[in-house]
């Protein structure tokens, strides 16, 4: 009994140290120019059986389960931060990249894998299918805070959030072709369209239900609202999966619907899921690092094969697929090249690479090792240079948007008021106005202004200046009216924005 308690305490301490080290690692990832997911994987490999030997883990079923659960959390957090007004103009090119682009990438990589790995055609296409899609977790993590043009950022996020059905469909299709004597190809194609269509419908429906519930059900504590929202994320995935549709697509759509709705406790929900999303990323990549065997991956044959496939993927397959997929859309060649370069591979290919193991496919270990090394190469080469490419091609935005945050006042309880936090820029109409000039609703009051790091107590003659941060107490029913007033921009800025679009 005492021995079991001691072992449990040691395991808890190890988990605490892993969490602390992983969070500290994120601080150095930006300084080193290396995506944090690579460092998380390195931490997992370090403490694994082939490293320091602290944790022995080789269960593909558990690795897949943890990977899927983590992807649900990451997709949900990323989807809630996605603005519909940004992705609406790029829905068509994003869907084209997520479908046609994935098929083209798969085909080109399969052709290379056939001759590089010396495997059969179906196995080669299986490799192509696994690495054919971009990864939402990697894309969301790398683009966060990079100030890439909204059009390009929205395209990449929408593509990575919607291309999982095609990747899963192709992976399962070629596994079936390898394991089943007679496969109904028409049934497979019909299954893909069902996965996409039903996933969209289920995601939108549960997203609407979640938004309605979050606003109309009064819970005793504001801390319950983020968990309530998370429950709908898992409901969306499970409902869609039980209907044989795409669960990950449903989760992303649910998150977009919730994120673009007026929520009573938006700030609490977003802040919780930001932290929980990081937790999911850390857990997922550490588990994947534990699952991989460095002594098998980092051998010359695997590294050479993985590097060759990565080079084909990065410099041939993805660029060709992006160029052909976006041929009919209004993207410049610089934008097409950037979208090609920013198509990161991450957790999804690694999780999909576990599928052949579960199915008992011949050469499944080779496929997993090569895919793992390919993903690492993609993350290191592409992920560490995205900012440099964007700046070199002058694809960095001017930070035109104003983030509006709502701070829920817990102490007010059921008073139905919120504190809006708004950053003022030169383009806003309110710049130069005094508080008396601003036509705020009756139940709205500017409580404080942060200017140059100092807190200013506002009064009627206080003038609003660019760079100010306003804190406005407002009744929830007047929140839309206040947001509309704050977000209004000068006429010349509106014309400039239209010309940029």
Automatic annotation (TrEMBL):
GO biological process: potassium ion transport; proton transmembrane transport
Topology of this chain in the membrane: Multi-pass membrane protein
InterPro entries, sorted: Cation/H_exchanger_TM, Na+/solute_symporter_sf, RCK_C, RCK_C_sf
Coiled-coil regions, chain positions: 472-499
Record's subcellular location: Cell membrane
Protein's name in the database: Cell volume regulation protein A
Segments crossing the lipid bilayer: 12-30, 37-56, 62-82, 94-113, 119-143, 164-180, 192-210, 222-239, 245-264, 276-295, 307-329, 336-361, 367-390
GO (cellular component) term, any one: plasma membrane
Domain named RCK C-terminal: residues: 407-488
Primary localization class, coarse: membrane
Keywords per UniProt: Antiport, Cell membrane, Coiled coil, Ion transport, Membrane, Transmembrane, Transmembrane helix, Transport
Example GO molecular function: monoatomic cation transmembrane transporter activity
Matching Gene3D superfamilies: 1.20.1530.20, Regulator of K+ conductance, C-terminal domain (3.30.70.1450)
């Amino acid at each position: 009994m005492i021995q079991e308690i001691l072992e449990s305490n040691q395991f808890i301490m190890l988990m605490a140290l892993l969490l602390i080290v992983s969070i500290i690692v994120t601080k150095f990832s930006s300084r080193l120019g290396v995506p944090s997911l690579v460092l998380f994987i390195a931490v997992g490999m370090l403490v694994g059986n082939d490293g320091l030997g602290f944790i022995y883990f080789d269960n593909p079923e558990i690795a897949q389960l943890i990977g899927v659960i983590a992807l649900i959390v990451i997709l949900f957090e990323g989807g809630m931060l996605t603005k519909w007004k940004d992705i609406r103009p790029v829905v068509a090119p994003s869907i084209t990249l997520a479908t046609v682009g994935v098929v083209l990438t798969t085909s080109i990589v399969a052709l290379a894998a056939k001759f590089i790995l010396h495997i059969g055609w179906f196995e080669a296409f299986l490799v192509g299918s696994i690495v054919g899609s971009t990864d939402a977790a990697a894309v969301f993590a790398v683009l966060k805070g990079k100030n890439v043009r909204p059009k390009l950022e929205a395209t990449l996020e929408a593509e990575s959030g919607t291309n999982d059905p095609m990747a899963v469909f192709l992976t399962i299709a070629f596994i079936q072709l390898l394991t089943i004597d007679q496969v109904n190809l028409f049934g497979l194609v019909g299954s893909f369209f069902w996965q996409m269509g039903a996933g969209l419908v289920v995601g939108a429906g549960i997203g609407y239900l979640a938004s309605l519930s979050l606003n109309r059900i009064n819970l005793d504590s504001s801390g319950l609202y983020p968990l309530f929202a998370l429950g709908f994320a898992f409901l969306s995935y499970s409902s869609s999966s039980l209907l044989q549709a795409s669960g990950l697509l449903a989760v992303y759509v649910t998150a977009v619907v919730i994120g673009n709705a007026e929520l009573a406790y938006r700030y609490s929900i977003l802040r919780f899921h930001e932290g929980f999303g990081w937790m999911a990323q850390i857990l997922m990549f550490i588990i994947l690092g534990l699952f991989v065997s460095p002594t098998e991956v980092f051998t010359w044959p695997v590294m050479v094969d993985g590097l060759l496939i990565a080079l084909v993927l990065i410099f041939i397959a993805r660029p060709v697929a992006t160029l052909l997929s976006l041929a009919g859309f209004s993207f410049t060649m610089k934008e097409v090249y950037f979208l090609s370069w920013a198509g990161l591979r991450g957790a999804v290919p690694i999780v999909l690479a576990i599928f052949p193991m579960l199915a008992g496919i011949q050469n499944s270990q080779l496929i997993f090792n090569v895919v793992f090394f390919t993903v690492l190469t993609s993350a290191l080469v592409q992920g560490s240079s995205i900012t440099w490419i964007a700046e070199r091609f002058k694809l960095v935005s001017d930070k035109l948007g104003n983030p509006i945050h709502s701070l829920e006042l817990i102490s007010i309880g059921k008073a139905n008021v919120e504190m809006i936090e708004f950053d003022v820029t030169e383009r806003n109409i309110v710049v130069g106005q005094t508080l008396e000039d601003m036509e705020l609703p009756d139940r709205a009051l500017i409580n404080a202004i942060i200017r140059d790091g100092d807190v200013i107590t506002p009064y009627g003659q206080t003038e609003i200046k660019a760079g100010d941060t306003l804190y406005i107490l407002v009744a929830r029913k007047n929140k839309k009216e206040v947001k509309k007033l704050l977000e209004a921009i000068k006429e010349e800025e509106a014309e400039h924005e239209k010309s940029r679009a």
